[in-house]
Amino acid sequence: MKKKLFVVLFLFTGMSLEAQINELVIRAKKTGAEIQPTMYGLFFEDINYAADGGLYAELVKNRSFEFPQNLMGWKTFGNVTLKDDGPFGRNPHYVRLSDPGHEHKRTGLQNEGFFGMGIKKGEKYRFSVWARSSGRGGAATILVELIDPKSRNDRQALAGKELIVDAGEWKKYELILESETTEPKAELRIFLKSKTGADLEHISLFPVDTWNGHANGLRKDLAQALADIRPGVFRFPGGCIVEGTDLETRYDWKKSVGPVENRPLNENRWHYTFQHRYFPDYYQSYGLGFYEYFLLAEEIGAAPLPVLSCGLACQFQNSDSSAHVAVCNLDSYIQDALDLIEFANGDISTEWGRLRAEMGHPAPFNLRFLAIGNEQWGPEYTERLAPFVTAIRNAYPDVKIVGSSGPNSEGAQFDYLWPEMKKLKADLVDEHFYRPEEWFLKQGARYDRYDRKGPKVFAGEYACHGRGKKWNHFNAALLEAAFMTGLERNADVVHMATYAPLFAHVEGWQWRPDMIWFDNLDCVRTASYYVQQLYAHNKGTHTLTLTMNGQNVTGAEGQNGLFASAVLDRNSNCYIVKIANTSGKTQPVKLTFAGLKKNESLSGGTRIILKAAGPEQENTIESPNLIKPEESAVSAEGQQFETELEPHTFAVYKFTKGAK
Ligand code: AHR
User: Fold this and answer.
1) Which atom of ligand 1 approaches the CA of 461 most closely?
2) Is residue 332 exposed (0-12), middle (13-18) or buried (19+ Cβ within 10 Å)?
3) Which of residues 469 and 264 earns the better pLDDT score?
4) Which position among 201, 267, 342, 375 bears the catalytic label?
């Protein structure tokens, strides 16, 4: 009896499996919304040593001796004194190296860099310093060395050269060092070699080979990783650092432009936000400032999206209203916003446009979006945002304004702010969601229900945070990919999306997961990075309706853990279908391109898949290439394509439209 039942069940199941092929129907002829060029982008914040110690290629920490403990990051030896009447008004400190008083003694100093300095064999490094001779007159000589402080060889120096400080007036000096070996934790050491002393200020060391060769430039491998995404939008400089722990420490863009030697130091809130990940030497030099951000955005082809303080210090950290700027005193903050637009777009005859030109970019940066406030909430936010909106609309009606929906993906603050943003006519609303796997699995249809007439969505910070101390593992990336089918399907309402945070130093992180990890020499692109890249490279130009049994494919009950979306790329005449199989089973899938004429077929099929050896696998600095997109050719039969999608896999299928 049991056997009979089994046979019947087997037959039945076999038949139903056959019948249960997941048939995804794409309405190939009826294009939907235009997909914004800004759709998939990047969010940058100086968290996890993303700027100083990361993307910003400066290797010297505390180069201007302005940290509150002025010699933090430095070891001094011999006769060294700290002075405070230097040539740069906002950075007045410098060091005086004087004769140690005995021919066998030495004076000098040594910088530890950011977790050391990554130095590569055969690469050139530009040392620069503002200096003058001091003391007895005449020229001073210093010896500049790159050293391996833990060296077991007979010599600590990896490279070294003498520099003559030939004047008693402040001047900039430079020399180039070339290392004989690769060393991830080198340091910079300077000896005074002459009886005549030397005053040294703004002691700097950059690789010569920066991103696009810029002086005061960016680490090439990290900037290249950004460019390789082909992002549509670039949001900067944060994140919470925009707000500051107090108003004094908010990101003040005006302090981040002009000559780099005179940009003042700012605290970095991530230095102390988490006591269990405490980094007392984490500050913002502003060396990577707004000019550099705009330039980077331009060079990676992304629309710049700066975020400015709305006059509220971090609301998580300040419950007292006296921590914030009173609404009646917002004028200078509003002026900062107007001046920023002038800095980015203004004619070179304007005050701020002229500064941009003096810094090397006479042409405008074409700023079209500006966010006011980061994770703000409550009436205290809306009453401050309102005067910004009025002033920006009056002066620059074409600039689109981005408002906040608070720090959470739903709940009271979110529910309060969305209608307020509508009333204020914000162009876009920034949503943040750092949520667990279960949340992502349930959000495939999130934007299907959004009001089509209100502000557009900027999914400005999101990442799947795996439970059980899993970070950047494949399953998180897969669920982000699944969720993103919902962004894509709703491209009429979602105009921008940026994963967050972007960068993390393996020794200096405060927050994880992150999209790109790095140490002093190398970087690793996570599975989440590749998801972002696959979407950005295959974003298409127009949405197409894709359904299974007449329903959007959102991972809903009965959809076998599948999430899917489809677009047309009019430029390449290509249909692109994205499918995430979040289930643990292989799923038979049939794509039917409905509406094509009889003589129209699909050619040039390509399949790109992202999968892992297991849902918990991740790319690491040691094994950076475990998870990578794999591309292969596939072919459709007429207007249909059948395949089997492996468990836990994200796939992108592309077919060119052609005549038979
Ligand atoms: O991305 C890290 C932080 O998360 C951002 O600074 C903030 O906006 C959010 O809370």
Assistant:
1) 1
2) exposed
3) 264
4) 375
